[in-house]
Amino acid sequence: MMQRQPLVLFVVTEDWYFVSHRLALARALVEAGFRVIVATRVSDAQQTLRAHGVEVCALPFERALTAPWRDVMAMRALMRLLDRLQPDLVHLVALKPILWGGLSLLARRRPQRAVLAFTGLGFIFTSSSWLARALRPLVTCVVAAVARRSTHWILVQNDDDRALLDAAGIGDAARTQVIAGSGIDLADFPRRPLPPSRGAIVLLPARVLRDKGVHEFVAAARRVRATRADVRFVIAGERDAANPGAVAAADLARWQREGVVEWWQHCADMAGVYARARIVCLPSYREGLPKVLLEGASCGRPLIATNVPGCREVCRDGESGILVPAGDVAALSAAIHALLDDDALAERLARGARARVEQVFALPVIARATIVWYRTILAT
Question: Disulfide: which of 5, 159, 302, 332 matches 35 by Cβ 3.0-4.6 Å?
Fold first, then answer.
């Protein structure tokens, strides 16, 4: 008798986000014999998912916090979907699906195996704004209640996030797993020769958010260009106006008029963008495990990142890049100068970056760890 495929239901706010961050892992799961369904708000990206053997179910999620009635609708739709599909494992990706998906699971009589996947702790847990401070106790209470159920497991991408959740009383150490991201397909981001320093591009590949260190990147660009006017500073990513941390559109327009940075917005061919850059820079305030650093490292680019959770897992100081303190524009500028002025250093860190991705973050390594963990959960 043919054994039924184990069904994994991913719950995520946007289909394009799943394509960007988890498609390679989903493909590996399908190849390993899992049936994979993604419940999400759909766009044209659903065609990409289906082309790779991933099924898609529409949920009316909103990424912003300003439309809770739509989130309630999404929660009710998810409950109906759970009843219909009876998945073996539900994988909730990021905070909003953990909140609403977790409440959906708690509302069901039948216990359901689930993974609460924290992809960094984000605005609610890390921001000092009044909104984040107001919401944090309620969110912590709900997440802790969801994580308390014995069939629910926690997945984090770095040890710092694991420690923070533990300090907040969220989860059980025996049901918490650290897996370094979702894996990167090295073939999608091949190593390319390092461009020369003259006319070099320093690349910030991220959404245009304050907590990605955009303001520090612009300030460092001003300092470096005061003596190296040939160097180009590029931001490649959407502004993401729905995010509370979005940089003001007026500031972004002003920086471009001044010529201090270029904004390339969303780029479909990121491998081609990395190939043009000499340095990949992410002066973020906190990350889970930044995909852009993994991609840049895979392409053989020396990294500059802040010494914060997530970033330091990929950017090892003196091995794959240079770490600088968060918010320190002077240190960020000095690191950029070092990689522009010292070809031997840049080449050595470029080789180290690629080697680290191959050894630690490559798709086969991460997929194998994820599948072994899934099967451990399903056996309980």
Answer: 5
Q: Which residues contact 282 (CB under 8 A, 6 or more apart)?
A: 204, 205, 206, 212, 213, 290, 292, 293, 303, 304, 305, 306, 311, 315
Distances (CA, A) of 18 to 164, 193, 350, 377: 25, 30, 28, 22
How confident is the model over 293-330, as pLDDT tens digits?
Answer: 999 999 999 999 999 999 999 999 999 999 999 999 99
- Residue that is written with structure tokens 């997929």 in the block: 367
CA distance 176 to 94: 15
Q: pLDDT by residue (tens digit) across 247-269?
A: 999 999 999 999 999 999 888 89
Q: What's the DSSP call for residue 157?
A: S
Percent helix, strand and coil across the chain, each to the nearest 5: 50, 15, 35
As given in the structure block, the two tokens for residue 310 are 């997530």
Does pTM surpass 0.85? Answer: yes
Amino acid symbol at 199: G
Among residues 200, 273, 199, the alpha carbon closest in space to that of 236 is found at 273
- The pair of three-digit structure tokens given for residue 261, joined into one six-digit string: 């940075």
Q: How many Cα neighbours within 13 Å face the side chain of 157?
A: 27
**Token pair in block for residue 163:** 């420690």
Domains of the chain: 7-183+362-378 (3.40.50.2000), 186-361 (3.40.50.2000)
Burial 126-147, CB ≥16 within 10 A → b, else e: bbeeeebeebbeebbebbeebb
